[in-house]
Amino acid sequence: MDPTSAPAAAAHDFSFIGLFLQADPIVKSVMILLVVASIACWTVVFEKLVRFAAAKRQAKAFDALVRSGGSLEATGSGIDAGIVQAGLEAWRDQDATETRAERRDRIERAMRAALTLRVKRLQSGLPLLATSGSTAPFIGLFGTVWGIMNSFSSIAQSQDTSLAVVAPGIAEALFATAIGLIVAIPAVMAYNKLTNDLGRVQSAFVASIGTLGNRLARDRKSVPHAAAAE
After folding, report:
1. Which family does it belong to (predicted)?
2. SS (H, E, C) 56-88
3. Within a domain: residue 62?
């Protein structure tokens, strides 16, 4: 056994920064990739939390507008404004030969199409969370396998099977897996939560669209308010 191996192992820095700096270039590249992915994921998460909170407020305002009979001109520049505009355009394109049910279906289709376009915009960034959550552990595992291979190479070169020889390489390798899990677990949790929140927002709008579509279809002449007198 090389008497210098034990002091060398003892001098090895096992802190997070030390493990990164002393890692193999391939393992180090894996770590950098995972850190960048983590930053991108957290950026998406915070951006979506803000946008989804605004979308929830718009869904509540839209529902209140439909139920209270407020003026359709009161809608702002959010999702509800695009839906109302699409509904009014479909309402103005009236056909004297169509039935009320057909007119309602056409108006609701127009509003749902407008909603779908805006939901797709809200969905942007969510695929990154799904991709990171599913691939980050395997990317980290690749770094681990590569690091362990380097440790075995060190054993072969030094002809020393002591733990002091392989411990640094194994520590660096396992650190890559740990980073992969740190990226994947929050990404999966955030994706599930945000997807569920988006589904609730969409369902709220769809329910209000049904109510508004029925009232728009009933009035063939003028639509001064979201709800006409029963």
Report:
1. Belongs to the exbB/tolQ family.
2. HHHHHHHHHHHHHCCCHHHCCCCHHHHHHHHHH
3. yes
* Average pLDDT over every residue of 77-97: 75
What DSSP assignment string belongs to 132-159?
Answer: HHHHHHHHHHHHHHHHHHHHHHHHHHHT
Q: Is residue 101 part of a domain?
A: yes
Q: What is the pLDDT of residues 103-159, one digit of tens each?
A: 888 888 888 898 998 899 899 999 999 999 999 999 999 988 888 887 777 676 766
- Domain containing residue 97: 27-136+184-218
CB 13 within 8 A of CB 175: no
- Domain assignment present for residue 146? The answer is no
Task: Indicate if the alpha-carbon torsion angle 26, 28, 31, 35 is positive or negative.
Answer: negative
Backbone φ and ψ of 13, nearest 5°? -85, 115
User: In whole angstroms, what is the distance from residue 184 CA to residue 56 CA?
Assistant: 27
| Angle (nearest 5°) at CA 173 between 172 and 177 | 115
Across the range 47-57, mean pLDDT stands at 93
Question: pTM score, two decimals?
Answer: 0.76
For the chain, the domain total comes to 1
Q: Is residue 224 part of a domain?
A: no
Closest C-alpha to 188, from 129, 124, 138: 129
Confidence of residue 221 (pLDDT cuts 50, 70, 90): low
List the one residue out of 88, 77, 94, 78 whose CA is nearest residue 111: 88
